[in-house]
Amino acid sequence: MSFGSGAGRRVLADREACPCGSGGAYGGCCGPVIRGGAAPTAEALMRSRYTAFAVGDERHLLATWHPRTRPDVLELDPRLTWTRLEILAVDEGVDGDETGVVEFRAEWRGGGGRGILHERSSFTRLRGRWCYLDGEVE
């Protein structure tokens, strides 16, 4: 399975703008989740996963993928750069829910082209923590 990333793994400073587009600084947004903290919502986990794609953090992507659907190998394509995330809809996925769905568009460029990934991602709780289950590409 191959997905795009930034050009190799990039480490962000806490004060830098978070790649997920929330408008917040990385250290108060996706940083704590990527460093192993629990995401408070399915949307927060989805944003952290987008940020992991943007910086090339395979470890976070695999760690937050449900073991039942997680690939054995994850290869991030260094030719692709993720450039923008837009959350379109969120269904459940908050405190008290066991499942959630986040619909988003993620823009990328590289490999001689540009594109948009439009997906409805499903999340579930596993041992009290949100994890990515699967996605339906629109």
Give a structural overview.
This protein is of the alpha+beta class and 138 residues long. Helices cover 17% and strands 39% of the residues. The protein has one domain (2-137): Roll (Nuclear Transport Factor 2, Chain: A). The chain has helices at residues 31-34, 42-55, 58-63; strands at residues 2-4, 75-77, 80-92, 99-110, 113-126, 129-137. The strands form two sheets. A four-stranded antiparallel sheet has the order 3-4-5-6, covered by helices on one side. It has a two-stranded parallel sheet with strand order 1-2. The protein is globular. Residues 1-7 have low confidence and may be disordered.
Quick tags:
two-stranded parallel sheet; 138 residues; disordered N terminus; 3 helices; Nuclear Transport Factor 2, Chain: A; single chain; four-stranded antiparallel β-sheet; alpha+beta; 6 strands
